[in-house]
Amino acid sequence: MTRGFEKRLEAVAAAGGNILYGGLKGVEKESLRVSPDGLLSQTPHPAGLGSALTNRYVTTDFSEALLEFVTPALPTTWEALRCICDIHQFVYKHLGDELLWPASMPCQTPPDTEIPLARYGDSNVGRMKTIYRRGLGHRYGRQMQVIAGVHFNYSLPEGFWPAYRPLCESDAELADFRSSQYLAMIRNFRRMGWIVLYLFGASPAVCKSFALGDTSLKPLNDTTWYEPWATSLRMSDLGYSNQNQSRINISLNSLDEYVKDLSNAICTPEPAYEKIGIKVDGTYRQLNTNLLQIENEYYSPVRPKRVARSGEQPTAALRREGIEYVEIRSLDINMFDPAGINQNVMRFIEAFLIYCLLEDSPKLDAATMEEIGHNQAGTAKRGRDPEFRLHRDGKSIELRKWATEILAAVHEVAALLDGHGGDHSYRDAVHALQGAIDNPDATLSARIIAELRDTDSSFFEFALELARSHRDYFSSIAPLEGRRERVLADEAADSGRRQLEIEAADRITLDEYLHQYFSAC
Predict the structure, then answer these.
(1) Cα(312)–Cα(201) distance, integer angstroms
(2) Which DSSP category does 141 fall into?
(3) pLDDT by residue (tens digit) across 180-199?
(4) Less Cβ around it within 10 Å: N or C end of the chain?
(5) Whole-number Å distance between alpha carbons of 414 and 419
(6) Could you please report the per-residue DSSP string of 350-363?
(7) Model confidence pTM above 0.85
(8) Phi-psi region of 38 (alpha: psi -120 to 50; beta: other; left: phi over 0)
(9) Which domains does the chain have, with CATH numbers?
(10) What are the distances in angstroms from CA 81 to CA 61, 150, 246?
(11) Rounded to whole angstroms, how far apart are CA atoms 141 and 134?
């Protein structure tokens, strides 16, 4: 930790550490629907879950089979966990005999043509969402798009910013100050986010049906590939950190640069995508032939976000009022946890993000970005290798040494967060993770490999058994009832009505709608 961090932490503590308490937390968790025997579901989105277009709690991501559970922004980790568990219970009531796949990496994956795209009805906005996904399939392959993960959304309390601004001796407008500080947080998350892969990576092995013919991986058994020291193959070049977007450079040094670079990528033609075509034989293959179809196509482990108005592009929302919260996208699904995430993970990420905010955060240059790329790719595939070294400021450093430094600083932030609640929950969460740093065999990824070896199971058999046990867990706990059930049931019913209203309100053709949407290009 730097003297700058210590000075800012002391100032926050002197101002009343409780200005950190009550930051809003939200969870988005993806889960593939599979048949009782573990095959990717080919059935439509369950009717009892309402409209995937408009339901605020249950929607779909790339595929009709890829559910996404979304909590509201909540002030405590307990409320966020309870909400994500409530959604699981509600969804299971409408799945029939189907299961939720408990892993980030899919298995028994069918050919691309048999992975169904998500459908959102007949409105222009609904059809646009499906076309976007069809384009992703053409560009990256549909298999890669059914990898699942957990996103953690976080914002500091509103009262934090006016209290923190004078501590930084800033006279910037509050919205501009907040955006610049969130970007400082994001830059440091990029620098040190490899620790999230190491601690919470849970995808060291994949089904051979997914990585068919990938000779870079090693065989664990007849149907399973793996990397002996991997933490998160999901975040490696096998998954989201692929080479297709290697030429896209989005600056995090200012909001203006970020928005400009992202907007340029959406408007810059890409010859490889021009070969795919846009509308062929009357059917849209993709939204356009540019580097990015829309902002969401840009894969990054962390994003600056603002809730957009209806029909508003994310970059326009950021231009309008600046950054509202950050979205962390590098969390694998915890295979051992029925909800895929737990409070200790949320507590660590929250404290870690605050550390990223308070720590010195220089602008990112090409050399730093090269180090960031090395550290993320290396940790994803070799994070538990005792010979692996991270790069920091032009020098190599042991992962354990740097991680221990990070945890020491995060523990100090956790103490401030605990000060308001009167317990040790944040400090305990951070302290428990030191064991995984001291002993790589205690990480989630190592535990998964050990389970596969000890039980002589394939990845598919192991995950399917966990899927059944998670279903049994949610059926064994207290039934969802009362207000908590009504909120989800009412939203499912209301979402169907809202979709019909959107479809009835369309007054222009899809071609006209898309032309207007991309008029800035």
Answers:
(1) 34
(2) -
(3) 999 999 999 999 999 999 99
(4) C
(5) 9
(6) HHHHHHHHHS--PP
(7) yes
(8) left
(9) 3-517 (3.30.590.20)
(10) 21, 13, 35
(11) 9
